[in-house]
Amino acid sequence: MSDNNYDIAIIGGGLAGTALAYFLTKDGAKVLLLEAGSICSGTSAACAGRAQIIESETPEYLDLVLAGLSRLNGLSTELDTDLEWEMPGHLTLLFNEDQWRQYETLTRRLNTHGVEANMLDIPALQQAEPYLQADSCIGAAYSTEGHVNPFKLCMGFANAARRNGAMLLTNTPITGFETQVNKISRVKAENDSYSADIVILAAGAWSGKLAKLAGSNLPMRFTHAEAFVTEPLPKVIHHHIGISGFYEAVHGSERTVTLGLGQHPNGTLVVSNAIQQAEEIDIASTAWGMPAIARACSQFFPALNRARIMRTWAMPSPFLPDFLPALGWLPGLDNLYIAAGFHLAVPTIPILAESIANFILHPNNKKSFSSLAPFSPERFAANK
């Protein structure tokens, strides 16, 4: 049995967990992070690294995304890690007039916030992406967008947290919780248990099961998403490219492909997503997924037909019923905090993790970016 008592125990070593460990230790907290696998081995490992902007559905969420984007600009220096941060921009391919009108409205909204965005007809689209076969499109919406290496972002946060004194334990799956008077007193793993004043669930798609194990409720949902990485190639893609309807597909569609691809600084292409509904977490690629993504990629980029696939992955893509994150104290336990279900994770996690750290350590201090109240898990209390 471990005699160490921590101020905060974080469960989950992905983007959210490592970011929280960094910001909490930066503010002086004694932090333990517990990860069932290795750092950045879950859903964060399958993240494309996009710092999306145009998918921000509401003005309030756009403000949050833009604040997070500004935070990302200086993180390489702050974390002393080359995060491969760049701003390639994003092209959303459009296929009918309804989509064109929808994205005209979105680009105008971005313009009012000082974000570069505009509509591209077919000649402009072909000039922007010479290798794109755009016969089925009527054009595209361009928007400013950033890109980061998600592995380096996770490891940057993790290493900075270690330098601040955090204890990070990997290959430590959680087996249960001990509770006393509406509080978690110890977090139990296979070979030890750990005490902490506050426990944070930051385990992505696994957070629902862990909340249930602790006796609380979180209606975490997920789809099964697949993608692949190609061999390094000469420059063939100049923006991140996706098709309209991406998040509608990710959030629970029947089996489908919603194409997204971008070229990383090392020349590899990350090509996603084959999506299907899922009731249980499965990290195995399916027989239909890789061929379906490859066909979609070949339809729009015939020049890539002979590119070799180096690796594939499959991961749960987590979301909550209203597609917003759950950030707050879980009902039923006074010291169990949830930070999961992030929407537009790359641009929002840095700013939200900093706000959460401030909220937990200084609950009466109002310096956080904004109120976390709209994301409280209390909104799901009626679903118990």
Quick take:
The protein has 384 residues and is an alpha/beta fold. It is built from 10 helices and 18 strands.
Could you describe the 3D structure shown?
By secondary structure, this protein is an alpha/beta fold. It has two domains: 5-46 and 151-220 and 323-383, 3-Layer(bba) Sandwich (FAD/NAD(P)-binding domain), CATH 3.50.50; 87-145 and 221-319, D-Amino Acid Oxidase, Chain A, domain 2. Helices cover 29% and strands 28% of the residues. The protein has helices at residues 15-26, 59-73, 75-79, 97-112, 122-128, 150-163, 207-213, 246-250, 289-300, 345-361; strands at residues 5-11, 31-34, 50-51, 90-94, 117-120, 139-143, 146-147, 167-169, 174-180, 183-189, 193-201, 221-230, 240-243, 256-263, 269-277, 309-319, 326-329, 336-340. The longest helix has 17 residues, at 345-361. The chain is globular and about 65 Å long. The two termini are 34 Å apart. 47% of the residues are buried. The mean pLDDT is 91.
Please describe the topology of this protein.
Blueprint: E1 5-11, H1 15-26, E2 31-34, E3 50-51, H2 59-73, H3 75-79, E4 90-94, H4 97-112, E5 117-120, H5 122-128, E6 139-143, E7 146-147, H6 150-163, E8 167-169, E9 174-180, E10 183-189, E11 193-201, H7 207-213, E12 221-230, E13 240-243, H8 246-250, E14 256-263, E15 269-277, H9 289-300, E16 309-319, E17 326-329, E18 336-340, H10 345-361
Parallel strand pairs: 1-2, 1-11, 2-8, 4-13, 11-18
Antiparallel strand pairs: 3-7, 4-6, 5-6, 9-10, 10-11, 12-15, 12-16, 13-14, 14-15, 17-18
Helix pairs in contact: 1-6, 1-10, 2-10
